[in-house]
């Protein structure tokens, strides 16, 4: 009994990788969105046109790519736009989105929740409240069940 | 609309006999209980005990009066009534994981069992050997099969599974039937062929339930990402998906060629309409929450509620919907899939509710509630719904409460208002498969 309890190297093995019946998601490698354009959005934020910046930021989401750098970049841009909004402007911005836009916004909001910074949580909670009013529990469920994440 | 509370255990699944006088339910254990309707009550008439694991599916063949059950013990039994006793016949499914769902085919000469072994067992009776034989549909299913539905032509089978896809298979068994004619889903149908595959593609959740329409041309399914999707086989293969703002739905049913009823974790049946172009829209929730009726609950009833829920304070945590927990199955009670007048829901709260459904062109709702509280918790509401796409409601309600111990109220409410929807912000469970 003593012999086989010595080495614990097997604990570092991911047994699921060796499972021949492992479920591999079929990714459509087709369109690889690069995420929104940072410079253009920065300009818009500077001149105060947060609405257009918002529309642009939610275009071309990097859903298909497996490269985390692209996703981080896109997330940073979107969060910058979201935090630059005034509280009163949030509701019309959410209203301007269609169903899939609200789902996408919800995905970004939850990604933003993952790493809270000083002033992001408060504004993100306001965004969450307004997006929830439109999208309901279904939009949150779709964030949780989505396999193509932002 | 009438609710019957069987027991406190969840009802895993249920099945009706042909004339709806008997219901077979499984109270979340190894047994099937058959209840017989007598007057307004349901009386238990049989207990079917043969399975060694939880029953996961029951189906009652209306014409041949046979019940098929499947369970987590990897077995299925076909039960026949002989001299007033239900006798089981074991069916060897040859699966190495639990069975999850079972359904008789329209002609009742075969049945299909979905399982966690990532395959569907289609079973038919071989009269030479006097036993049931099963054939497997394996490819290309890659995860647990959650739900099945037969096409009216007795050959095609729709399957929803945990690999996020809904597929249409051919379950043509040459030993028991003739070659089928061509359908909008395809014309070459050897056993096990995939005629259509939908879903996946990025989003998508586990497909909890699938349903063919009565013509077989339309297929609807509900998925764990809170969506309902309908595809019309005659109009090409682009499905029309509706992303709902509700919690995920668990069961879906066509109740006419254009209407779909679905229910799930929101404890409330919802009506969707599928127009001729094939696009899906949400019509309404079918369980209208009652506005707060202030009635004096007698002291005895207050203590009885506290005792039943084992609470120490008198706090009302009841949901506004009739069902107090998720609805797991919707079935047709009166009518058929072309024109359903009543449908039935059962859920995790152990209750079975029968709903009236009517679609006409007028805007009127009239409800008369008569609640009589007895010891067996039977409520009878009679409600006639008349609905179209735009709702203007004028409710007239007459309540007559008769409590066994003290007082009698007669209240007349009349109001017009819009639906107050309640958001259940709670914890919802992801069932790990």
Question: Which SSEs are present, and which pair or pack?
Answer:
The complex is a heterodimer of chains A (150) and B (433).
Chain A: H1 38-47, H2 50-57, H3 68-83, H4 87-95, H5 99-114, H6 120-145
Chain B: E1 2-5, E2 13-16, E3 22-26, E4 31-38, E5 41-49, E6 55-60, E7 66-71, E8 76-82, E9 85-91, E10 99-104, E11 110-115, E12 120-126, E13 131-137, E14 145-150, E15 156-161, E16 165-170, E17 194-199, E18 207-212, E19 218-223, E20 227-232, E21 240-243, E22 249-254, E23 259-264, E24 270-274, E25 280-285, H1 299-309, E26 327-335, E27 340-347, E28 351-356, E29 366-372, E30 378-384, E31 395-402, E32 408-415
Parallel strand pairs in B: 29-31
Antiparallel strand pairs in B: 1-28, 1-30, 2-3, 3-4, 4-5, 6-7, 7-8, 8-9, 10-11, 11-12, 12-13, 14-15, 15-16, 16-17, 18-19, 19-20, 20-21, 22-23, 23-24, 24-25, 26-27, 27-28, 29-30, 31-32
GO cellular component, one term (chain B): Arp2/3 protein complex
Organism (chain B): Oncorhynchus mykiss (Rainbow trout)
GO molecular function (chain B): actin filament binding
């Amino acid at each position: 009994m003593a012999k086989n309890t010595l080495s614990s190297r097997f604990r570092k093995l991911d047994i699921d990788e060796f499972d021949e019946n492992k479920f591999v998601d079929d990714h459509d490698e087709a369109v690889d969105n690069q995420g929104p354009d940072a410079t253009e959005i920065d300009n818009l934020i500077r001149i105060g046109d947060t609405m257009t910046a918002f529309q642009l930021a939610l275009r071309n989401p990097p859903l298909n790519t497996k490269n985390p750098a692209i996703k981080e970049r896109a997330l940073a841009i979107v969060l910058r736009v979201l935090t630059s909004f005034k509280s009163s402007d949030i509701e019309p911005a959410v209203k301007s989105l269609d169903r899939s836009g609200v789902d996408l916004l919800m995905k970004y909001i939850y990604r933003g929740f993952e790493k809270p910074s000083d002033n992001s949580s408060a504004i993100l909670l306001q965004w969450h409240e307004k997006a929830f009013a439109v999208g309901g529990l279904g939009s949150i469920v779709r964030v949780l069940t989505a396999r193509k994440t932002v | 609309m009438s609710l019957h509370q069987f027991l406190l255990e969840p009802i895993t699944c249920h099945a009706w006999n042909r004339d709806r006088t008997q219901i077979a339910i499984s109270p979340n254990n190894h047994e099937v209980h058959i209840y017989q309707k007598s007057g307004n009550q349901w009386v238990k008439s049989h207990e079917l005990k043969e399975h060694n694991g939880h029953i996961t599916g029951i189906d009652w063949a209306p014409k041949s009066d046979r019940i098929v059950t499947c369970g987590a013990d990897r077995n299925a039994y076909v039960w026949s009534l002989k001299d007033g006793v239900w006798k089981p016949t074991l069916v060897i499914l040859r699966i190495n994981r639990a069975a999850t769902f079972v359904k008789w085919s329209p002609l009742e000469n075969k049945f299909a069992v979905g399982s966690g072994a990532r395959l569907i067992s289609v079973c038919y009776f071989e009269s030479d050997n006097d036993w049931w034989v099963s054939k497997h549909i394996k490819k290309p299913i890659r995860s647990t099969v959650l739900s099945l539905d037969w096409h009216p032509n007795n050959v095609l089978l729709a399957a929803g599974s945990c690999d996020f896809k809904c597929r249409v298979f051919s379950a043509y068994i040459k030993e028991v039937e003739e070659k089928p004619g061509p359908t909008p889903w395809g014309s070459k149908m050897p056993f096990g062929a995939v005629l259509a595959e939908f879903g996946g593609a990025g989003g998508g959740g586990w497909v909890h339930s699938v349903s063919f329409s009565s013509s077989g041309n339309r297929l609807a399914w509900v998925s764990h990402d809170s969506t309902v999707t309908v595809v019309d086989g005659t109009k090409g293969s682009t499905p029309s998906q509706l992303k709902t703002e509700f919690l995920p739905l668990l069961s879906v049913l066509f109740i006419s060629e254009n209407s779909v009823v679905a229910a799930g974790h929101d404890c409330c049946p919802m009506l969707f309409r599928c127009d001729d172009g094939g696009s899906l829209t949400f019509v309404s929730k079918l369980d209208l929450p009652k506005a707060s009726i202030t009635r004096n609950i007698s002291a005895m009833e207050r203590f009885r509620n506290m005792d039943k829920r084992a609470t120490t304070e008198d706090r009302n945590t009841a949901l506004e919907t009739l069902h107090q927990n998720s609805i797991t199955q919707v079935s047709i009670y009166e009518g058929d899939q072309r024109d359903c007048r009543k449908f039935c829901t059962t859920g995790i709260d152990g209750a079975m509710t029968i709903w009236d459904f009517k679609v006409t062109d007028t805007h009127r709702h009239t409800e008369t509630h008569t609640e009589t509280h007895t010891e067996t918790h039977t409520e009878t509401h009679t409600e006639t719904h008349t609905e179209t796409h735009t709702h203007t409601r004028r409710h007239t309600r007459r309540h007559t409460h008769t409590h066994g111990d003290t007082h009698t109220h007669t209240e007349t409410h009349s109001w017009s208002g819009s639906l107050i929807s309640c958001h259940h912000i709670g914890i919802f469970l992801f069932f790990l498969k």
